[in-house]
Amino acid sequence: MRCRPALIALLLWTGSLPAWAQAPHAAPTASCIGLVLGGGGARGAAHIGVIEVLEREHIPICRVAGTSMGSIVGGLYAAGYKPQEMHNIITTLDWNDLFSDDPAREEMPMRRKDADYRYLLNFEVGYKNGHIVTPAGVVQGQKLLLLLRRLLISTWDVHDFDDLSIPFRAVATDIVAGKPVVFGSGDLALSIRSSMSVPGAFAPTTVDDQLLVDGGLMDNVPIDVMRNMGADRLIVVDVGSPLAKREQLSNPVAVLNQMVSALMDEKTRRQLDTLGPNDILIRPALGDLGAGEFNRGAEAIEIGRAAAEAALPKLRALAASPQQWDDFVAHHRQRQFDPGLIAFLKVDAKHTDTATYVAERLEPDVGKPFDPKKLEEQIGGIYGRGNYQQIDYRLRQDGGDRGVLIIPTDKPWGPLYGKFGFQLDDDFAGRSEYLISAELNATNINRYGAEWRSTLWAGRIGGIASEFYQPFGQGATVYAMPSLLLRNEDFPLFDNTGDKQLSEYRLKRRYLGLEAGWSPISNWRLVTSFTHGQDTGDLRIGVPTEAFPSSQTNRYSVASVGTDWDSLDNAQFPSRGLHVSLYYDMYRPSLGGDVKADVAHVIADWVPDFGLADSRYHVLLGLRASSALDNTNTFETQSFLGGFLNLSGFAERSLYGNQSVLGRAVLYRRTGRLDALFSTPIYIGASLEAGNTWHDKSQVELNSLIYAGSMFLGIQTPLGPLFLGYGYAQGGRNSVYLTFGSLLRPRQ
């Protein structure tokens, strides 16, 4: 830090710097070579291969301009990154994770993880000012922006892009005015992020009150920008996708995409027509490599390298002398960055109602060294609540102190959000059930981050549940949650063998509850609750049973304690992690009810990480157990088995009792390419299961377990996981299943 004045003075002494390091307003020399990097999505990784050849041949670049992916590569190169460093970044990034805004599931708060077990679609709509509003992009770009912040952290105090090791420009499009926007100053990371906001895929950014999308719409190969920067010889790399062939235009989406591509192609051709005899055009032969195939980055880099090799006869004429090259190398390096201590933390409250909540989560790090990776994880934990479109940060200098400005932006399609869900079970034997659900969530009700969530059901379950979630304290690790539920549910009851249906009840449940919990880390929660309500069983068909008489209303009051651990990486087809729930329910007349019982529940699902070279194979080991310790036989103490992966071969919930246990091992394999970004995951699998239900603890014996198994095909659809399976159980029971739902079969 003490050396900074001397360094600034040295940089201002431009007479000692080579021409390519001088500002554009200085008169360019014959050695000033401009590099133009076009947009093309994943195809833009080819730019790195071209730059590798330029450096090998000692060709110094004095100006860089880029659009979309070209702005990322160009911006990193201008900031001092070497080609090999960019090569490593592109080929080692987890692109699937980068194009998902949410943090890794293990880092999400427990409340957000709970939502994964509610069979809701991963699509959200909002209600604002009397209108239904949807997100402006499939991806909000949260992780991409934070990645750019970290990669470009050494340029945090650079405002003028001419002050980078190579002067740089990024091109975006003002979608409101319909004109290009050229960034030559401002926030480097945000400028690059704006340049690659592909409409429909990435949400637009807002800079200086301009709504910005991908620069490729207006200037995909910014030759004109480079001319304005003062370069007199150009190396232009065009990685744009070719137009689709006639036979490929077989649907409205393809035709619409072709229309946009044709307009972009026409603009690009006009730019390329301005190239002179001293300019060099490089067009890597990327063939069928798609704009979204970021998993093929290494392949694209190699193709770019080959294209530059083919242009060597022209490129070598631009090679610098040894002294000129040494000067370029000495100047082209990343700026020194001293992390220092975080002296202060501020939260910009202009675009959020929860500035206090965000500040409380991050203030414990004031006075500690700045760690961008740790800050990313902390921001990810806050973002994982699901209430924000974006959470950004900037370093700030205040006198001799350096601090962090946090910039949260609430979802503009909120604060009232809705999600829908769908569940279907059909055993192809005449019994089918469906469940449609809708969830309405009002967020940021107060500055401490309160939420009010209501769920409606129709189908085998009908009714409504509502809960008010209020976090407290530093880090919001403590919460209180009052709730109510009005629900009717169909219960088919079978004989002890599970073969013959005896009756069907409509269970009406009503309750008021209060839950309090403590979740000091993202994977663990301690819970206590009190619930007062009543259950009424109405016999619809058949004859009454011991636990379900023809007409009975039970008033109950139950105090519960429990704990949850959830480190699964995915709630639908997990590849690693552990989920355990332990709960103890105490029904007491002294609390105001009619039921006296003690019921213990255990749910455990473990997917071990074997560290195998082939990560397609996974094993889920599961346990479900419930026991009414004093053999109480009421509505409240019953548990059910039967259905796919829940003693496969039996009909859904065809076995019931106040004692139950189920153990299972499920093996499943993912097909297709694991690194493909826009693919539909398909799984094939099989299960082995053992379990039973009993009406008395004295009946629980190992030799009374029922053994079952299944084979299935699972597809991760936009509606959630869809399973087609065949189950067989001991005694010759078998069934074919078509069902939506989770592989974990969570409790409803």
Automatic annotation (TrEMBL):
Keywords tagged on the record: Hydrolase, Lipid degradation, Lipid metabolism, Signal
Sequence motif GXGXXG, residues: 39-44
Motif position, DGA/G: 214-216
UniProt keyword annotation of Zinc-finger present: no
Gene3D superfamilies listed in its UniProt record: Cytosolic phospholipase A2 catalytic domain (3.40.1090.10), membrane protein fhac: a member of the omp85/tpsb transporter family (2.40.160.50)
Record InterPro entries: Acyl_Trfase/lysoPLipase, NTE, PNPLA_dom
Stated name of the protein: PNPLA domain-containing protein
Domain PNPLA intervals: 35-227
Lineage: Bacteria, Pseudomonadati, Pseudomonadota, Gammaproteobacteria, Lysobacterales
Single Gene Ontology MF annotation: hydrolase activity
Active site per UniProt: S68 (nucleophile), D214 (proton acceptor)
GXSXG, short sequence motif: residues: 66-70
Hydrolase listed as a keyword: yes
A Pfam family hit: Patatin
GO biological process per UniProt: lipid catabolic process
Leader sequence segment: 1-21
